User: Which sequence fits this backbone?
């Protein structure tokens, strides 16, 4: 029952929207397509749904050539960023709409719709008009409609991005539970996101996409610990992993010709030379005896503070585990946990990860 | 520039009714000259009503508004020396950037040489100096928003610049630049900036003083650190920080202990006057630690889920129906099903009628 994409490419303009994408999806698993805005996530989902035709490549579902099957016969459900509902219908009517289209038996429609309403927590809202609902509730309606369809493939395109963060927090947890449910084992779930934390929390397989190209596929843990290249390391971390030029020579590790450390023990076997040094914001900390950096801005996110810093040649972001404001241009002293650094070759490819001995 | 004072302000849209509804409940607030403020709350909390009272778009049904000593309660917007920035950039598209910035001064018949000097100075700090001759229409969204802001900055007499969700239409990458710019401008011009948003991170990143509103009331005014560490109400505990604060219904079992379920937790709050009351205990998941054995202030629970967010782990555990979330280092190994969680007394907040004691 797997869904297979083979060498899918789409190049409507000068730029690739999808560049030779080959992927394999299995039912009962959750997939997160992680990439920045305009990286090709939506195009990929639309191609699977049949809303967009690729220039070349193949899609097979359950052994059949999916590209020759029209959209309405693909049995795919999609939830969009924007809350798309029928404004003149109430909650219940919105959810039953596709089932009525299919001329399903009324008693069966009732059951499916009631189930879906229950799953997304909209009991008591059945006869409400769409405009009377909050954004979060509207997105639940869209989700319930997709669930009621019992589609074999469920595509979710950044469904939480237009909600404020408290709502997002709550709905994300509910989504996760829903996707772990019984019937999820029968369908393929593909969730597109720009948010690395969201991808980690959903804890499925992560597919990293950039400029229409798949950069890495792996478990959330593996992609986090061993990003295939420097680009993946940037995309899969929030704040993006800090990348600076570095040199290993004379048993020293030098950042951008500016600051140097004794070569950490786990890097002793690395050949001297020039590399890209990657270090997570969480592995940079305040230290009175550390190096002086200027604050560009301090950004508070949830319960943490991201300090955007620069020195003469180095730019980096440090995560401080408290909520605190710093002034623009204030000087802070920081240090780097060098046992946690990553090394990337000049080509960008991963050479050393602290999680691989 | 001026100090803005709201004295016993309240606003009802139906003040004549026998049982008027208040969009804004009675409050007094004073805004220091040169401060950087955020008005934060969910939609419908009254923040826009408050902003409109300051700008003069709404005359409050009760109380008075003073700019320095002057009563401006009934003074129209145009005569208040207020500058406003809205969600969508308001610019004169056919005019050049220069003409846009000069417009407020031209209207007030400033001499040409003075206008020229001021426009150039403001354009410089907003990084618009290379675009002065360009038509405003062709600029990016963040540059357009900077023009809206710049029209406030060219006037030295503005009492405050009021911004209503000004970053809504700005791309995430550009938001960063604009936030930094806002902070720099505030530092340079010492103009009072008041920023309305429903986004906690936005508010905390921008302001040094945040006014949290809920259901028409100001529930807390303080620094990001205050809001995080000592939320004045359980709503603030929920609304600020991610995940939300853990909150439990409890009773006082001694002058400095609360009990809920079979747990007795020591706190640093004096509970003498709250002995017979219904109380709530609040503790942030960041302050909970994992211990090896039982002891004082230990909450023993069954582990339900450990989520790996990469930069940290989030433990969800329960004791019967009582749930707890604890945020811990990723390196921490949670192998057993039972867990001993310590609620440090200094981080326990006790609430009576949802207000911090």
Assistant:
């Amino acid at each position: 029952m797997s869904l297979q994409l083979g060498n899918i490419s789409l190049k409507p303009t000068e730029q690739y929207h999808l560049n030779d994408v080959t992927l394999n999806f299995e039912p009962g698993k959750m997939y997160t397509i992680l990439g920045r805005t305009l990286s090709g996530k939506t195009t990929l989902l639309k191609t699977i749904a049949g809303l967009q035709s690729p220039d070349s490549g193949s899609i097979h579902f359950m052994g059949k050539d999916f590209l020759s099957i029209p959209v309405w016969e693909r049995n795919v459900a999609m939830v969009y960023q924007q809350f798309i509902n029928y404004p003149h219908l109430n909650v219940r009517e919105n959810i039953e709409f596709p089932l009525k289209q299919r001329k399903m038996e009324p008693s069966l429609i009732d059951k499916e719709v009631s189930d879906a309403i229950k799953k997304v927590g909209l009991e008591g809202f059945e006869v409400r008009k769409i405009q009377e609902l909050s954004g979060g509730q509207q997105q639940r309606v869209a989700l319930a409609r997709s669930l009621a369809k019992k589609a074999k493939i469920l595509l979710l395109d950044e469904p939480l991005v237009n909600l404020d963060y408290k709502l997002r927090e709550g709905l994300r947890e509910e989504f996760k539970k829903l996707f772990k449910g019984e019937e999820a084992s029968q369908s393929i779930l593909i969730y597109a996101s720009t948010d690395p934390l969201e991808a980690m929390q959903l804890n499925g397989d992560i597919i990293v996409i950039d400029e229409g190209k798949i950069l890495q596929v792996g478990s959330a843990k593996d992609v986090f610990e061993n990003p295939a290249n420097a680009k993946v390391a940037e995309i899969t971390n929030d704040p993006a992993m800090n990348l600076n030029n570095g040199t290993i020579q004379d048993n020293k590790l030098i950042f951008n010709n500016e600051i140097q450390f004794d070569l950490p023990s786990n890097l002793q076997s690395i050949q001297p030379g020039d590399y890209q040094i990657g270090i997570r914001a969480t592995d940079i900390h305040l230290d009175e005896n550390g190096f002086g950096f200027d604050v560009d801005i301090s950004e508070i996110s949830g319960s943490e503070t991201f300090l955007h810093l620069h020195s003469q040649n180095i730019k980096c972001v440090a995560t401080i585990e408290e909520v605190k404001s710093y002034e623009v241009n204030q000087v802070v002293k920081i240090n780097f946990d060098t046992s946690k650094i990553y090394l990337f070759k000049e080509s960008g490819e991963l050479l050393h990860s602290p999680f691989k001995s | 520039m001026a100090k803005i004072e709201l004295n016993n302000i309240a606003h009802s849209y139906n003040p004549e009714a026998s049982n008027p509804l208040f969009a804004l409940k009675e409050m007094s607030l004073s805004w220091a000259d040169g401060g950087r403020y955020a008005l934060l709350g969910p939609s419908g909390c009254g923040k826009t009503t408050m902003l409109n009272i300051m700008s003069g778009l709404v005359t409050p049904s009760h109380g008075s508004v003073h700019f320095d000593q002057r009563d401006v309660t009934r003074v129209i917007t145009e005569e208040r020396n207020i500058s406003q920035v809205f969600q969508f950039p308001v610019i004169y598209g056919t005019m050049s950037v220069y003409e846009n910035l000069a417009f407020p001064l031209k209207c007030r018949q400033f001499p040409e040489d003075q206008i020229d000097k001021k426009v150039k100075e403001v354009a410089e700090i907003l990084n618009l100096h290379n675009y002065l001759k360009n038509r405003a229409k062709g600029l990016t969204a963040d540059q357009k928003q900077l023009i809206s802001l710049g029209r406030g900055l060219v006037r030295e007499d503005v009492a405050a610049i009021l911004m209503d969700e000004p970053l809504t239409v700005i791309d995430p990458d550009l938001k960063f630049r604009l936030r930094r710019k806002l902070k720099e401008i505030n530092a340079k011009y010492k103009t009072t900036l008041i920023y309305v948003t429903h986004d906690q991170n936005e508010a905390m990143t921008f302001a040094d003083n945040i006014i949290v509103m809920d259901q028409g009331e100001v529930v807390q005014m303080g620094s990001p650190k205050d809001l995080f560490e000592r939320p004045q109400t359980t709503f603030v505990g929920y609304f600020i920080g991610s995940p939300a604060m853990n909150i439990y219904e409890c009773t006082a079992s001694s002058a400095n202990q609360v009990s809920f379920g079979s747990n007795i937790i020591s706190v640093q709050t004096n509970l003498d006057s709250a002995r017979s009351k219904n109380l709530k205990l609040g503790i942030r998941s960041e302050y909970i630690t994992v211990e090896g054995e039982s002891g004082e202030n230990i909450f023993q629970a069954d582990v339900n889920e450990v989520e790996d967010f990469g930069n940290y782990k989030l433990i969800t555990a329960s004791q019967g129906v009582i749930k707890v979330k604890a945020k811990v280092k990723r390196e921490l190994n949670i192998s057993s099903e039972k867990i001993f969680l310590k609620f440090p007394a200094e981080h326990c907040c006790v609430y009576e009628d949802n207000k911090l004691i």
Remarks:
- The longest strand of chain B covers residues 298-308.
- Chain B touches chain A at residues 42, 171-172, 176, 179-180, 183-184, 187, 198-201, 204-205, 208, 223-225, 227-229, 238-239, 241-244, 284, 286, 307-312, 327 (CB under 8 Å).
- Chain B has three domains: 4-81+157-235, 96-152, 244-356.
- The mean pLDDT of chain B is 90.
